[in-house]
Design a protein that fits this description.
The protein has a single domain, classed as Glutaredoxin (3-Layer(aba) Sandwich), CATH 3.40.30. The protein is globular, with a radius of gyration of 13 Å. Helices cover 46% and strands 20% of the residues. It is of the alpha/beta class. A five-stranded mixed sheet has the order 1-3-2-4-5, with helices on both faces. It is built from six helices and five strands; from the N terminus they run H-E-H-E-H-E-H-E-E-H-H.
């Protein structure tokens, strides 16, 4: 577990733009079991690729004309229960942080793993997400 004072700014990069911070397995299940609609869930992380690539990318992507109805995040290494529960919905993909999932009607329709984030510019990741939003939202 990372100290809250260290991760608070990393969480706020997403919560300040409308992401809901999910901290329990129950909160994750409640979100995932919604009957319909789209949801973007980011598995946040303290790593450099989350700071330089993933968080900026999702912030850029939500400026698209079509966007998910719900924005949510879990924080790996901080909210362990919520992160483990969210990852169950991302199968068959292995645990990856950071990672970004787009859900539609409770089903995973698009997933970006860490190896697709690491070393790629935020703009490229944002374009990938925008294309997914255009298709599924």
């Amino acid at each position: 577990m990372y100290p809250e004072e260290i991760v608070a700014p990393m969480k706020s990069e997403l919560t300040d733009v409308g992401f809901e911070q999910l901290t329990t397995a129950e909160a994750v299940d409640n979100l995932m079991n919604k009957a319909s609609g789209t949801a973007l869930i980011m598995v946040n992380s303290v790593c450099g690729c989350a700071a330089a690539n993933a968080r900026p990318a999702v912030r850029m992507a939500i400026g698209n004309t079509k966007t998910p109805a719900t924005l949510a995040t879990v924080f790996a290494g901080v909210d362990g229960e919520a992160t483990a529960q969210a990852r169950k919905y991302f199968l068959p993909y292995p645990p990856s942080s950071p990672s970004i999932a787009l859900m539609k009607d409770g089903k995973l329709v698009h997933f970006i793993e860490r190896h697709h984030i690491e070393g790629r510019p935020a703009e490229l990741i944002a374009e990938n997400l925008k294309a997914a939003f255009d298709e599924y939202c």
